[in-house]
Amino acid sequence: MANFLENIFGQLHRAGDRQIVREVRGEEFVSVTGRELLAKVARIRAYLRSADLRCGDRCAILAPNSILWAAFDLAMMAEGVIVVPLYSRQAPGELALMLKDCEPRILFTSDAALGDAVVKGWEQAPGVVLFEDVLQSSPLAEQNPVSLGGSDLVTIIYTSGTSGEAKGVCLNVGNIDHMLACTGERLDQLMRDKSESGDVPDQVFHYLPFNFAGSWILLLSCLMRVSELTLSTDLTRLVDEIGVASPNYFLNVPTLLERVRRGVGEAMAKRGRFISWLFARAQLAWQQQQSGGRGVLDTFWLAVGRKLIFGKIRARFGAYLRALICGSAPLAPETQQFFLMLGIPILQVYGLTETTAICTMDDPRVHVELGHVGPAISGIEMRLGENQEILVRGPNIFPGYWNRVEETRRVLRDGWFHTGDQGEMNERGNWRVTGRIKNLIILNSGHNVAPEPIEEKISQLLPGAQQVVLVGDGRGHLCALIAGPVAAQQVDEALESVNSDLPHYRQIRNFHLVENGFTPENGLLTANGKLRRDAINSRYASEISAMYDARPAK
C-alpha cells in the first residue's frame, strides 16, 4: 500500500498541467502546475544528493509560506531527509536554540539576512543556503520518493513553547498516513457534491505558517487531493486576498475570527445610527430565532438585516465559501454563533502537534454544537484521566520528543498520550476543551481556578480588549492584566458583571491596564497566538505586585 508521499507524487503526476498551488499577489496570481512543481522538486532533490545528504539527516526550512516552501518540503521528504520547519517571524535566539537541539546539516531559507541572524556567533552552525541558489541545480531524472516505512521520521516540528521551552515533536510516516486519511474523509464530507465528480478542484485559501502542524497537514491534504491551494503573501491584506481567492474553505485560528467579529461591530457603529440600530436589531432577531422564538417582527427584521448587512459581510469571503475551519485554541461560542448568523458555519478541530495536529473534528453533515470541537477522529480513542485531563491513544500519536527521553516518558504512559488539556465529552460524543492543567491558578486558600473560562467571559464584555490574563498563583485572590484600548470604567463594569456569577474565591479583586497588546514579536504570545503566561508574569511582575499591595476592589 502506498504511503502519503507516494500518493502525493501520484496526484501531482495526474494533475499534469492543472494548477496546484498559487500565491496571491494583489489582484494577480503566481502559480505552478503539477508538472512544474515536480520539476522544482527534482532540482532540489539533485542538490540534496550533491550535498551528500542521506536518509535520516536533518535539514531546516526558514521562510514564509510559498510555492518553493512546499517544493523544498516535498523534495526533502522524497530523499528521506527529516524536515525541520521554522517560523520566519520568531526571534532569532529562539530559532537558534531549536537548531542547536536538532543539529540540521543545512538551513534552507528565502532570506539571507534572516538565516545569518539565526546562526550568528555559532561556531557549529549549519550552512545557510538560499532557495534561489538550490534551484540552479540540474534537475534529477524523474524518480519516485525513496522507500519509507511507517516508523520512519519525516519531520521534527517544534512546539510553540507556551512555558518558554520549545520541544521537537517527531512525526513519522504512519502518523501522517493516518491523519491524511482522516482529513480527507472530513473534506470529502464537506465537499461531497464536488468529490463525487472527482475532477473539480477544491478551492482552498491558506495564511497560517507551514511550520504549525495543523497548517502543514492542510498543505499535504491539498496536495493529495484534487485541490487548488492559494497562499497568502501579505497578512495585512487578508480580507482582500480572501475575496480574490474565493475559497470553499480555509483554516483559521480563533484570534483572527474574533478580530473579524470585533471589526464588524466597530464598523457598524461608524456607519450611522440607522445601520447600527438595524445590525443590532437583526442580530437580536436571529438570536431569538435560535432560542425558539419566531415573532413576525423578528422574521421581518432578520430578513432586512440579511439583505442589507449580513449578506454583504459574507460576500467579503467570496461566493463559494462552504465553511471556515478553526483550531489551535478554543473558539468563543459567541464568535462561532456570529459567523453562523452570517451564514458561515465554523467547523472546529482540536489537537496538538504530538497528536499529528488533530484529535477531534466537527462533522459537517450534522448539527455543530457551539463551544464543542467535535467527536474523536476515526481510529483513535480518547478518555479522561486525573483532573479531567484528556488522554489520547491511536496511530496519530507521535513516537517521542527529539533528544528528550524523560519528557517523552512523562507524557506517553501505558500507551496513552497525556495532553495536559482539561476537557469533557457529552452524550453525543462531542468534546469540549475547558483549560490547561498547567495553567491552573492555585490560591493560598487551596482553591484551584481554571483561568480560561473567566478570561473568556471578561473578553466578551470588553470588545476592545486584546487579551485578558488572570494572575494569583499562591496569592489570596485573583487579579487581571487587561491589554488593549479599554477604559478603567469599562473594566469595572465588566468585572462587576462577571463577579456576580462567581463564588468568592473565583472573583477578580483588582486589575491593571496594559496599553499595548501581547504579540509574538514582544515574546508574550506564541507564534499561533497562545498566551505565554510565564513570560507575561515575569514581564509584569512589578505591576502584579502593585495590584496585590493596593487595596483590593470589592
Q: TL;DR?
A:
The chain is an alpha/beta fold and 554 residues long. The protein has 19 helices and 25 strands.
How would you describe what is shown here?
This protein is an alpha/beta fold and 554 residues long. The protein folds into three domains: 227 residues, ANL, N-terminal domain (Rossmann fold); 182 residues, ANL, N-terminal domain (Rossmann fold, 3-Layer(aba) Sandwich), CATH 3.40.50.12780; 110 residues, GMP Synthetase, Chain A, domain 3, CATH 3.30.300. The protein contains 19 helices and 25 strands. Strands 2-1-10-9-11-12-13-14 form an eight-stranded mixed beta sheet, sandwiched between helices. Helix 17 links the parallel strand 24 and strand 25. The longest helix is centred in the middle third of the chain and has 20 residues. The protein is globular, with a radius of gyration of 24 Å. The N and C termini lie far apart (66 Å).
Which short descriptors sum up this protein?
19 helices, 5-stranded antiparallel sheet, about 20% strand, about 550 residues, alpha/beta, Rossmann fold, 3 domains
Number of strands: 25
What class do helices, strands and sheet pairing give?
Answer: alpha/beta
Sequence stretches where pLDDT stays below 50 over 5 or more residues: none
Report the C-alpha radius of gyration, rounded: 24 Å
State the distance separating the first and last CA atoms: 66 Å
User: Which CATH first-tier class of the largest domain would you pick?
Assistant: Alpha Beta
Helix count equals 19
Shape: globular
**Order of strands across the biggest sheet?**
2-1-10-9-11-12-13-14
What's the CATH topology name of the largest domain?
A: Rossmann fold
**Quaternary status of these chains?**
single chain
What would you say the CATH architecture of the largest domain is?
A: 3-Layer(aba) Sandwich
Q: Biggest sheet, in brief?
A: 8 strands, mixed
Helicity level, as a percent range? Answer: 25-40%
Mean pLDDT, to the nearest integer, reads 91
Counting structural domains, the number is 3
CATH superfamily of the largest domain: ANL, N-terminal domain
Strand content: 15-25%
